[in-house]
Design brief:
The protein is α/β, with parallel strands linked by helices. The chain has a domain of 154 residues: Purple Acid Phosphatase, chain A, domain 2 (4-Layer Sandwich), CATH 3.60.21. The protein has five helices and eleven strands, in the order βαβαβααβββαβββββ. Strands 4-3-2-1-10-11 form a six-stranded mixed β-sheet, with helices on one face. A five-stranded mixed β-sheet has the order 5-6-7-9-8. β6, α5 and β7 form a beta-alpha-beta unit. The longest helix is centred in the N-terminal third of the chain and has 18 residues. It starts with 6 loop residues before the first strand and ends in a 13-residue tail after the last strand.
Length: 234
Amino acid sequence: MKSRKQTILVISDFHAPYNHPDAVAFLRACKKKYKPTDVVCIGDETDFHAMSFHDSNPDLPSAGDELKLAIKELKKLYRLFPDCTVVESNHGSMVLRKALAKGFPQVVLKSYNEILEAPRSWKWVPDVTLKTPIGPVYFCHGKVGGAGKLASQYGMSCVQGHFHEKAQITYISTPEKLMFDAHTGCLADDDSLALAYNKVNPKRPILSVLVIVDGVPQIVPMLLAKNGRWMGTV
């Protein structure tokens, strides 16, 4: 009997509740087409705009209301992907960062699962390395923007999010092995006021996910029509 392929679906920068309105439908289509054996969310699953260290937009929800809206969106992901490894990130860890800034020890804080009403099968980690048939792959939220740099530093294939305008795969070859260095793009809604800080960037966000099949990566773009809505195909 032919063994099932290892398929890792990599999601990044969902930024709930400021995710693209069609992001969940797009992910549902990706699940149906690629049938992932593993799901890794590499951070910024939530935005926490109202809790930012920077000024927040007064026309957006308060911190409490924003959290309720974020949980509502994330529950759709919990149902779609019952098991998920989540990498800690600058937006996703905002509650912990604010608490530490105010002198609260981590022991008195709620877990990510409690705050976000996530199932126990969703596990938060600082980073993670998964084995594939052609070598290990290291996942982190975002450390190096330059193509190929992180894989060269770590000596293994690497995947990052964080950089919304980057959805790319760069291969690096040595006498001993072939490695890739990938950036996933994002699933955030560029029209949201929470993302207004990025308007000065001439490069626009790329909506996409990454799929790694038996160690071979592929960018899956979320193609949009002129009205900004998903075209419905994967």
